[in-house]
Design goal:
The chain has about 325 residues and is an alpha/beta fold. It is built from ten helices and eleven strands. The strands form three sheets. Strands 3-2-1-4-5-6-10 form a seven-stranded parallel sheet, sandwiched between helices. The protein has a two-stranded parallel sheet with strand order 7-9.
């Protein structure tokens, strides 16, 4: 098949391209050529900015388009218009974050989503405040205006090799360092999916012309934060000791969920980590064993220079200060 990937230069996009090549497809990338343009010598690279260079796509046709870089309604609308009649199937990579807050436990694709006010549907600037509603509007545009079958993928937290967000690698680095490790509630549910699993599935979505919308995260069986951290410790084979603190303590010191202490989310929001992905599994989404994701991600991370800035998690000094404060409070609790 001929596959057009819009983007393909960052984490998930790179793995989508590699999966398509591995499956023997003829792949064309359309992006600005600013990030590692020589990474895929077996693919065709069309250099252009989707905000103003869509005419560069006029001279060809593709069986499948995979959109990993559609960030604003204006861009997605223009791209859908440009590709209608030139592409047989359109897959748009959205996010599970489109679900309206508060997310119900076990939410599936029927759960309500955030929506932009009518006066903002042409928004060009994406912020933390409007991100969910913007992506929801992009979904609507693909679903309602593309002239062929379309498929909307809503990933949860995507992890694995080449994940520079450090929301997953933080724990492996920290546990490998050993000693007393500050962690949140061990009973908290956690969900994430290996980038290689979802990338391969996205390519198969085009091959099989999936339609509709699917939440996509893992693992296949329920997992708690304590179980995940325990598996990291077992695999890395280190002497690390977990000190569990409560949500109120973390919020008191201004820690941002999922960022300052990766994978942590306050109890009142933890339903976001209980998404029902039955629809995706019915379409063949499979998750590799947790041990493989941990081991492969750790090995990739160990190949990075240690002076590379870390994008998530506490510094050792920050953690030590929090641990000292917590233990001091525990010592002063009346018997």
């Amino acid at each position: 098949m001929k596959i057009l990937v819009l983007g393909g230069t960052k984490f998930l996009g790179q793995h989508v391209v590699q999966a398509a090549l591995d499956r023997g497809h003829d792949v064309t990338l359309f992006n600005r050529g600013q990030s590692d343009p020589d990474r895929f010598p077996d693919a065709t690279l069309l250099i252009g900015d989707r905000t103003c260079d869509l005419d560069k796509l006029a001279g060809d046709r593709w069986d499948v388009a995979i959109d990993t870089s559609g960030h604003t309604p204006l861009d997605v609308s223009a791209t859908v218009d440009a590709l209608s009649g030139k592409v047989g199937h359109y897959t748009y990579v959205s996010t599970a974050s489109v679900l309206s807050q508060p997310v119900p436990f076990g939410a599936d694709e029927t759960a309500p989503v955030e929506e932009l006010p009518p006066c903002e549907t042409c928004v060009v600037e994406v912020t933390d405040h409007n991100y969910a509603a913007v992506k929801s509007e992009c979904e609507r545009i693909v679903r309602e205006t593309f002239d062929g079958p379309s498929f909307i993928v809503r990933p949860g937290l995507v992890v694995g090799p080449e994940d520079v967000s450090d929301r997953f690698t933080y724990w492996m680095r920290r546990i490998k360092f050993g000693g007393d490790v500050l962690v949140s509630r061990p009973d908290q549910p956690v969900q994430f999916i290996d980038v290689r699993d979802i990338a391969d599935w996205i390519v198969r979505a085009g091959e099989e012309s999936f339609e509709g919308t699917c939440l996509a995260t893992g693992p296949a069986e329920p997992l708690t934060l304590g179980e995940f951290l325990g598996e990291c410790k077992r695999i890395l084979d280190v002497a690390a000791y977990f000190t569990c603190v409560d949500d109120a303590f973390l919020l008191e010191f201004g820690l941002q969920p999922l960022q300052d202490l990766p994978l942590w989310i306050p109890r009142e929001q933890e339903a976001f980590m209980t998404l029902d992905c039955t629809a995706a599994r019915d379409k063949g989404l499979r998750c590799r064993p947790l041990v493989d994701t941990i081991q492969d991600t750790y090995e990739w991370d160990m190949g990075r220079p240690w002076d590379v800035p870390v994008n998530a998690g506490l510094t050792l000094d920050q953690e030590a200060e929090l641990l000292t404060t917590w233990m001091d409070r525990m010592d002063r609790v009346p018997a």
